Amino acid sequence: MVTRMKMAVIVMMMVALLSPQLSDAASVFTAFSRGFERQEEIQSTRVTSGRGWESREVPGKVWVCTGQPRAPGTTQTSTSDQMAAFLRLFAYLNGRNNRDQRLPMGVPVSIEARPAPDGGKELSACFFLPESVQSNPPTPTEPLVYLSTRPALTILTRRFGGFATDEDTWENEARALRRLLSAEGQQTRTDLQYWNAYDPPYKFWNRHNEVWLVKA
């Protein structure tokens, strides 16, 4: 019987073989293996908590980001577009920058979601850059990759599990969290949210995901 781990590796191999244009951006296997490294997590401070949620202060930090465009006429990003975006970010970590510097990977992997004019979402995929490079990160050489300094934020969140691999999962969690907060009189911004995944793809149980809603 094929285990889940073997299945994940097979999927990665199929992506690499069937999508050579994505493999040019960065090796799928290199991206997969980076999940085995020690990963530094952004440090936030809990402010308060309620019934099933908590408020935290997230410090202003530099992230490396790339857009996740949607095909015309669609409301969600395709799997290939998501893979291409993440491989661009892995390529930056693997030395595609102005110093040819290989960087450690931080967590979470974070999607910045804003409303789009057509009613969908404008998405940017970002990796947290660890403290060792925060003060002077190398500049990306890929035109679609950029450094973004997020300001300090007060966020309201809760943890949920499973594989959050599509926009509907994140949207459903954001709506459920917003209902929970509204019941306790907590107001959040409607123009910005963050979808955060803390675990590498080979972890199948007790996964850690969070939607961050920004305090109004």
Features:
two-stranded parallel ribbon, 216 residues, 12 strands, ten-stranded antiparallel β-sheet, 6 helices, alpha+beta, 31% strand, globular
Uncertain runs are 1-29
How are helices and strands ordered from N to C? HHHEEEEHEEEHEEEHEE
Largest sheet properties: 10 strands, antiparallel
Give the rounded overall mean pLDDT.
83
Write up what this structure looks like.
This protein has helices at 4-18, 20-23, 28-33, 79-93, 131-134, 167-182; strands spanning 40-41, 45-49, 54-58, 61-68, 106-107, 109-115, 121-128, 145-150, 153-157, 159-160, 188-197, 209-215. The chain is an alpha+beta fold and 216 residues long. The strands form two sheets. Strands 2, 3, 4, 6, 7, 8, 9, 10, 11 and 12 form a ten-stranded antiparallel sheet that branches. The protein has a two-stranded parallel ribbon with strand order 1-5. It is globular and about 50 Å long.
Secondary-structure blueprint:
Layout: H1 4-18, H2 20-23, H3 28-33, E1 40-41, E2 45-49, E3 54-58, E4 61-68, H4 79-93, E5 106-107, E6 109-115, E7 121-128, H5 131-134, E8 145-150, E9 153-157, E10 159-160, H6 167-182, E11 188-197, E12 209-215
Parallel strand pairs: 1-5
Antiparallel strand pairs: 2-3, 3-9, 4-7, 4-8, 6-7, 6-11, 9-12, 10-12, 11-12
Brief synopsis:
By secondary structure, this protein is an alpha+beta fold.
